[in-house]
Write a structure and sequence with these properties.
single chain; mainly alpha; elongated
Length: about 60
């Protein structure tokens, strides 16, 4: 598998995780878990921004 294919797979996986965590976040009521999920979403956003800065992906 080429590095470009791996990178595209990573981008797809990040998008999947973000969608999953957003759906979980909308259903979660406990503040502790909401903060935990928001932290995960922030980390995924940071990874996505770093990939964008390196011109590896296009949104």
């Amino acid at each position: 598998m080429k590095s470009e294919e791996k990178l595209e797979e990573l981008v797809d996986y990040i998008a999947f995780l973000k969608e999953f965590y957003m759906s979980v976040l909308s259903e979660e009521k406990a503040d502790y878990y909401r903060a935990f999920i928001k932290g995960k979403l922030k980390a995924l956003d940071d990874i996505e921004m770093k990939l964008e800065k390196s011109d590896k992906i296009k949104k």
